[in-house]
Amino acid sequence: MSETEAASRLETTGDRLTCAVETTLDIIGGRWKVLILHELLRGVRRFNELHRALNGVTQKMLTQQLRELEEAGIVHREVYPQVPPKVEYSLTPLGRTLEPILDAMHEWGNHYHQSKLEQPEQS
Fold it and tell me: Mapping DSSP to helix (H, G, I), strand (E, B) and coil, where does residue 6 land?
């Protein structure tokens, strides 16, 4: 790897050297964020639609994860001035750039499951 390539993969944060993969995982890591992003790739969703789609997530956790994604500039939260309140979540243009990453994760997961099915049982 050339020095330029190495430099592009690393950034200095304070006194700590972190790579771009770690930065990405800091933003989208965890059980629920990737699933939220996967759901939002399908289109605009309201909170309850996300909550129903993500089996097992608590309302508190979903709220927290959505806030973190919004603060990172990945998710847009649109509040409509009506009663009852209407709030919709969608991906920002920056959030949409994660689509190839999520597609690759999907493909890898399929490949992994297929390879497990094809392995002979170990005794």
Answer: helix
C-alpha to C-alpha distance for 30 and 28, rounded to whole angstroms: 7
pLDDT in tens, 4-62: 544 555 555 554 456 888 888 889 998 899 999 999 999 999 999 999 999 999 999 99
Domain boundaries, the chain: 27-118
Rounded Cα distance, 26 and 68, in Å: 10
Between the CA of residue 7 and those of 34, 78, 117, what are the distances in Å? 27, 38, 40
Peptide bond into 81 cis (omega under 30): no
> For 67-83, what is each residue's pLDDT tens digit?
999 999 999 999 999 98
How many Å apart are CA 47 and CA 51, to the nearest integer? Answer: 6
- Candidate CATH numbers 3.40.50.720, 2.60.120.380, 3.40.50.2300, 1.10.10.10; the one for domain 27-118: 1.10.10.10
